[in-house]
Design a protein that fits this description.
two-stranded antiparallel ribbon; mainly alpha; flat; 11 helices
Length: about 260
């Protein structure tokens, strides 16, 4: 049975990585995981925090139990010989594990590892689950000024329900990298629904705060919004046609033009 909602990535909470969006394809008969150049993974516990934290071991235990169920599902899916067998497979109950994670974070809400746990909940809970919202309330109350929530903010793109949290981060967090991440996520989330507001957030990253990488990302997004969005005049293209004749895209202004980009390597 194909899992509902957002697909997730198996990852060990003992290893730290970069939080980004990723795509996972569930293919029949074999479960295939396709990783893009940017990954969305659960926030692993930082080494120093893990050693000092009384909840880190339980966090890892819950994750490993979930991971084992994922692997068992993948193996069973690979071995299944018929559609009926595959449809009878049960994907791990992500909500059960996310609820356990939230209960753990609520035991020690001020523990730095609670930030990692919230990242896990956001990354692994099913779509439309109420648990990520509850988890972010914990961050707002106990970690809103932390310098460890940059990657958490980077996870919250393309989700209008997380806009209020990101705005709260911008208002209260004193760290430039965190503010840059929050503003970028806000801009990316609002690019379609409110382009003017999104442009303002991108400009804030360029002009006010953020790392060099964040500023470059904002500049690229602004260029795309101003020059490459639907309804904009297409950039000039020059080249040769199949007969070797030089041409420019502007030569065809006023006509319907289909541009087919292809290559042979």
């Amino acid at each position: 049975m194909k899992p509902e909602g957002r697909s997730k990535l198996e990852v060990s909470p003992s290893r730290r990585g970069t939080l980004r969006n990723f795509n996972v394809a569930m293919c029949v008969p074999t479960l295939v995981v396709l990783l893009g150049p940017a990954l969305l993974i659960a926030l692993p516990a930082r080494a120093a925090d893990k050693q000092a934290s009384p909840i880190a071991a339980e966090y890892e235990r819950i994750h490993k139990e979930f991971e084992q169920e994922q692997k068992a599902f993948s193996e069973a899916s690979r071995k299944a010989k018929t559609d009926e067998e595959r449809n009878n497979l049960k994907f791990p109950d992500r909500e059960k594990y996310a609820a356990q994670m939230l209960a753990l974070a609520e035991k020690r809400p001020t523990d730095p590892v609670a930030v990692d746990i919230v990242g896990w909940i956001i990354g692994f809970s099913r779509q439309n689950s109420p648990l990520p919202t509850k988890a972010l309330e914990l961050i707002t109350k106990h970690h809103i000024e932390s310098n460890n929530i940059t990657e958490l903010c980077e996870m919250l793109t393309d989700d209008e329900t997380k806009v209020d949290f990101l705005r709260e981060v911008l208002r209260k967090n004193p760290h430039q990298t965190v503010k840059g991440a929050a503003a970028l996520s806000l801009a990316q989330t609002m690019a379609a629904s409110n382009p003017a507001r999104a442009e303002s957030y991108f400009n804030d990253v360029v002009e006010k705060y953020g790392t060099k990488e964040q500023k470059e990302a904002a500049k690229g997004a602004l260029f795309e919004m101003k020059n490459l969005a639907i309804g904009k005049v297409a950039p000039e293209i020059e080249g040769e046609d199949v007969d070797g004749k030089r041409f420019k895209l502007s030569d065809y202004r006023g006509k319907v033009v289909l541009i087919d980009f292809w290559g042979d390597w």
